[in-house]
Queue: 2 jobs
Job 1
Amino acid sequence: MMISPFYLLLIVLTLVSFLIQWRLRSKFTQYSKIGLQSGLSGKQVAELMLADNNIRDVRVVSTEGRLSDHYNPADKTVNLSAEVYEGRSAAAAAVAAHECGHAVQHATAYSMLQFRSAMVPALSAVSRFMPFILLAGILMIRTSVIPLGLGIALFSLTTLFSFVTLPVEFDASKRALAWIDRRGIVTPQEHGMAKDALWWAAMTYVVAAISSLATLLYYVQIFMGGSRRE
């Protein structure tokens, strides 16, 4: 029995995503065991970076979960997981600075972050019923391609969001690495560890974007096959 190229691609991407997630956790665990020479905690690094960028209305808070770190533009909070918030390693400093990089993007009206934020309400609305529309579209493909076409249009928004996220994440890491160097937060060796940790984190977004595109193309293939039968 032949496996569809799209199914094979999705399987490969799923495995790659799993391996990258595993590698990211492995790297973070490894680097977290090496104390930062400056002795600063992730919380202190975050607060210092915010202050250096003259951002006074953003709070640094601790959040539950491992590697659950994120910046919330709605309530202006840099949310750091406990191991980053309390950690005193190159990995903790890198993640804390990266999330503050998003706060700097917000404060300076970085265009790609604004674009991504503008997409969130629409995505939140369509994500509730999009899977049902896609399923209905596939089941009804022999009678009408309209439902699947609608589902593809909605799913394309999630794919676009995944790709818009990439420059936002890479830019935040670039800002973080430049600042921790300029401020003397890390030594040259620690910089290498920080850069490596952020690179693996960025790869999770890259694979997610490619996976979303592959899934979109799979639905498009089904749509094209159905439209030829009409």
Job 2
Amino acid sequence: MPPTLAVSTVIFGIRADKKGRTQLWLPLVRRIRQPYAGRWALPGGPVGARESLGAAGARTLAETTGLRPCYLEQLYTFGDPDRSPTQRLVTIGYFALVTEEQVGATVEDENVAWFAADDPELENLAFDHRQIIDYALWRLRNKAEYGQIAHRLLGERFTLAQLRAVYEALLGKELDPANFRRQLNATRSIEATDEYLAGGQHRPPRLYRYTGTSHDPLEVDTTL
């Protein structure tokens, strides 16, 4: 019997924890059939006979989470013979990025929920989905040196403090504000706008934007 071909996608977004700290989060779906019924898993599903891999990734995301990411990148092919106990299953892994606004607009229920990237619950996922998440985290962190990551996770406008919080969440460590600003100035990938963040009791911080003047390693896959 030939292998079944499927796609699974790690979707990264940011949201604040109970203490207000920016963290990296991802949505999971609860499996409703065997194998691993009742276990959390990455959004995904089988590839249609006349469907491209990218189209299958985008479709299964929309069907399971309602999300339509601004960015979708193919990760790796996961095809260990023992990754599924019932059939030979080959999965094409993807990772996607969504903005903070998209994360907040997601409807959660008993079968769809967001989890922090360091949540212990991720150690008990279906199939080898923990391995896929780890690979996606590695790939994302290797891209974290680029200022372009900001407008994928934060949106078109952001403060330097918001941007630094995103990098701290990605890298898992605190960054010195002065050194961070110098590194950003060296990349010339963002620029100040004439806008300021509304609200707050103190002087509002200036908003910045990604300039798009250098090569963007997070280019949207236009074949979707």
